[in-house]
Target: ABC transporter ATP-binding protein
Amino acid sequence: MEPDSTPARLALRGITKQYPTVVANDNVDLTVMPGEIHAILGENGAGKSTLMKIIYGVTRPDAGRIVWNGDDVRIANPAAARQLGIGMVFQHFSLFDTLTVAENISLGLPAGHSIAELEQRIAQKAAQYGLDIEPQRHVHTLSVGECQRVEIVRALLGEPQLLILDEPTSVLTPQAVQALFQTLRQLASEGCSILYISHKLDEIRELCHACTVMRGGRVTGVCDPRQESEASLSRLMIGSEPPAVRHADRPAGEVVFSVRGLTLPRAHPFAVPLENISFDMHEGEILGVAGVSGNGQQELLAALAGEDRRVARDALLLDGRPVGHTSPSWRRNHGVGFVPEERLGRGAVPDLSLAQNMLLSHQNRQTVRRGFVRRPVLRSLAGGIIDRFRVKAHGPQAAAGSLSGGNLQKYIIGREVTRRPRVLLVAQPTWGVDVGAAAQIRAELLALRDAGCSILLISEELDELFEISDRLMVIAKGRVSPSLPTREASLDLIGRWMSGLWTTETPHAEA
Ligand SMILES: Nc1ncnc2c1ncn2[C@@H]1O[C@H](COP(=O)(O)OP(=O)(O)OP(=O)(O)O)[C@@H](O)[C@H]1O
Model:
């Protein structure tokens, strides 16, 4: 590629960052060449995000050197990073719904630009990289993939020499992933370096020229992912191959939970209205719900969990009893568990400890007696989950917000699974979770199913849905398709249904 005399675009030497209870980065070296797409791979809590935050000036290292195009630099804050030519596209977008694309982008720029001029620059940049966006559209009308393109164009307007992407494909359809890869390859061919954080081994092998593997805050290897197999990458990362998930066909039991003609107008202008949704959930069965995000998944989960209080009494039946009017805590007390897709905020309270967070779903006689919270019980329950799910955390007293994204996800799933619910409603259970932990979470869901639990699995990962669901259906534009046994479903059929095209395509479909 580049002759040896070319200085690296970015060289990190001996970067160390210590948090009170953990060394998040321990003497890390990283070399990224101009025009190189460089993956950072590592299990949850390995220290990837911390390292990216150091490069982007969000976090200061305790020790180590950052060398940029051959010169030692200090990166005091993100503005300084952008000044050097470092751009970052975060996993969570920071766009205001009520503003247009151009207005959003103008917020990050120095004053003095006219919006019309900016719209033109955005359109130019977008066209140059095949990114289909319209600067005048309001953000609330955009799909998730379009929002990501806005973030990428925003970063590209800064003419970066290094672009950092944090798990960029977790929100994209397979087609959008390919379009993104094309953009990234074009950028790289023009000399821009790319740091690519992902848990998806197949994507890393397809896209990246180099890969730095981290484990426990340290670099454990650097490889050319094109020369590796998924199994060998996995071994580099977690020391073993992810266990295969066993999925045996078994007959489903009685209907436990039913949805009957659930129709809900949108609760706010950006919500998706639900239209005449009906389906049954059986004992000992995983019912998978496929769909591109933003098609009513969140609204459906809010209605089933009791967060949306407008649901008609008869629209939901638990063991044949109407429960549409009941509260979330009533439903929890009657054996229904929920794992929302937003981990912080809905799934956990960041400032509270993991033990205190147990109370979100374990408020019962065991944990609260005569109005007093039994702290030792909470601590031991939390400790049990930390051990069983191998959550990397400094014990039950660690604040939820101090955990890495994937570890918090494992904790929240563990918290719900250990309640042994009869009905579990779970959204995106393995988002941002490394391959080993994802396999473990799927195995736990299967074990729960085998114990008789009825599980509704809302996911955007088709592989995951096909791997562990017994039946599949699709949600599109606030409506659900009929369901059909997974062994009778094909990727092609589910893909077609995801765009809302289902009619009488399969005779086996159950309404
Ligand atoms: N602000 C913080 N305070 C305390 N500990 C932290 C903080 N941020 C990160 N950590 C700890 O540093 C370690 C590395 O976390 P980091 O978020 O960098 O991991 P990661 O590799 O990005 O993980 P994931 O794949 O789950 O996102 C973890 O043990 C985490 O708990």
